[in-house]
Specification:
single chain, alpha/beta, Rossmann fold, 7-stranded mixed β-sheet, 12 helices, 20% strand, elongated
Length: 285
């Protein structure tokens, strides 16, 4: 005769085991794991506290829990991540979009309120979270997303299709600007900016599951910014604007690189944690 385990009991058990393994937001993650298996959101779980879980559901929850305790990120286990009010498919071939990156999207949208049309270029598009979010909010805009990874572009293509912007977004395999042609009104990028030293100190969730191509910025973390600053002028239209996410300690170095390459109206913006996170600039020509 098997033991009968209720939904509420199992969720609390998941929470406690996550806490024991120093997983932050253990209660939230337990709820998400439960929702993934049962299909019940937070409100439904509260109403179904005494509902008995079937053995199949218990086995599925145990499998997911083991993956999480082994260091696999929650978004990889779920197969998706929320960003700017939308759900994006993610896996190990793309960098999971972070909440801080929403600042970049918000800045572009704030600066383009009066624009009906614009052509965007997203350098290192990954899951497509940045450019797809912008295109979804600006139905008259079109864009090109480039990435050196064909697998990343496959994910971006799926997201573009599901989120309804596929007909306005081209995707291209390119190592930065190598295969890019034409000029754009706006160029955006969340380039790799982690230093070689910091790469060796990353948490397992990042170091073992996020693509190194999307993380490593070279000895000082600035390799990608130098490439972008040196070449962007050939691809931005007159008065075109560049938007770059930066590391928390790059609020002086990245603007300096842009200044040396002739950009003007360079501004730095902080995220909600008070860290430098975004640099914008106008093309010099």
């Amino acid at each position: 005769m098997r033991d009968f385990i209720s939904l509420g009991h199992q969720r609390r058990s998941l929470r406690d085991r996550l806490k024991e393994n120093r997983i932050e937001n253990a209660s939230f993650e337990a709820m998400i794991l439960m929702e993934h298996v049962t299909g019940k959101d937070r409100a439904a779980q509260i109403l179904a506290e005494t509902e008995i879980l079937e053995p199949k559901a218990l086995m599925a929850l145990e499998t997911l829990l083991r993956r999480r305790l082994n260091g696999e990120p929650l978004d990889h286990i779920m197969g998706h991540q929320g960003f700017f009010g939308r759900r994006f498919k993610v896996d190990g071939s793309v960098l999971t979009p972070r909440p801080e990156t929403e600042l970049l999207v918000s800045a572009v949208l704030a600066d383009t309120k009066a624009q009906k049309k614009a052509r965007l270029l997203d350098l290192g598009t990954g899951s497509g979270a940045i450019i797809i979010s912008i295109l979804a909010e600006r139905p008259g805009f079109t864009g090109l997303g480039i990435d050196a990874s064909d697998e990343a572009l496959r994910i971006a293509d799926e997201n573009a299709h599901v989120l309804g912007v596929k007909n306005r977004l081209d995707l291209l395999t390119s190592n930065w600007f190598e295969a890019v042609k034409g000029r754009f009104d706006i160029i955006v990028s969340n380039p790799p900016y982690i230093t070689d030293k910091a790469m060796g100190q990353l948490e397992i969730e990042v170091s073992e599951y996020d693509p190194k191509l999307a993380l490593s910025g070279g000895p000082d973390g600035l390799n990608a910014y130098r490439i972008i600053a040196e070449q962007t002028g050939n691809f931005l239209k007159t008065q075109g604007r560049l938007y770059l996410e930066i590391g928390y300690d790059q609020g002086e170095s990245v603007p300096s690189i842009l200044d040396l390459n002739g950009f003007k109206e360079i501004e730095v913006f902080k995220d909600l944690s008070g860290n430098d996170r975004l640099v914008t600039a106008i093309a010099a020509k």
